Amino acid sequence: AQKITQTQPGMFVQEKEAVTLDCTYDTSDPSYGLFWYKQPSSGEMIFLIYQGSYDQQNATEGRYSLNFQKARKSANLVISASQLGDSAMYFCAMRDVMNYGGSQGNLIFGKGTKLSVKP
Amino acid sequence: GAVVSQHPSWVICKSGTSVKIECRSLDFQATTMFWYRQFPKQSLMLMATSNEGSKATYEQGVEKDKFLINHASLTLSTLTVTSAHPEDSSFYICSAYDRGSNQPQHFGDGTRLSIL
Q1: Do residue A99 and residue B91 have CB atoms under 8 angstroms apart?
Q2: Hey, is the C-beta of A90 within 8 angstroms of any chain B C-beta?
Q3: What is the CA radius of gyration of chain B?
Q4: How far apart, in whole angstroms, are the C-alpha atoms of residue B7 and residue B21?
């Protein structure tokens, strides 16, 4: 069965510093996608970054980058130059690539990491 | 701008009332929509998968007769919480995407349901 593990319930980072949020995953499927979402206190889920299992390079989106280590089954999120507005819950998630094994493509979420940025 | 619209964002109602939540994809055809439930300080739990034109697939432990899902078009899915009770109070959030793509799922803004 697929599983996402986020071992850091809470993290603190000083404003303008970088922070790494850990995520490990477990799957027997060769094709999958890894996602990171941000959930502010208002509740909406904001898509941050995506990494496909066959992507050769680590994904980057502005201040977000994904440190993808396939052999270790880890997909850590790196936020550079933290801002106060980055304070939120961060969820790592995984999805089967469609048409493999009959998956419907739903996301499996980790338990999340609450990031607090200090001024 | 938002690509998935969820309405209402906040509901307070009496026990025994049925509540309908709408999830609309605004600028793409969502062949698949998902309904999640989130308790405070917890992760999202998948309740059901809604495919356009067919019956929803419910996760184990989710009552089909309690949480009615309809996905009548490629842009709209509804979740009806029937005869809601205080234990149904939660944050409900939908997501949508085009099945077969590698695009991220886009989420609605969620509905906070409080049953008195």
Answers
A1: no
A2: no
A3: 13
A4: 6
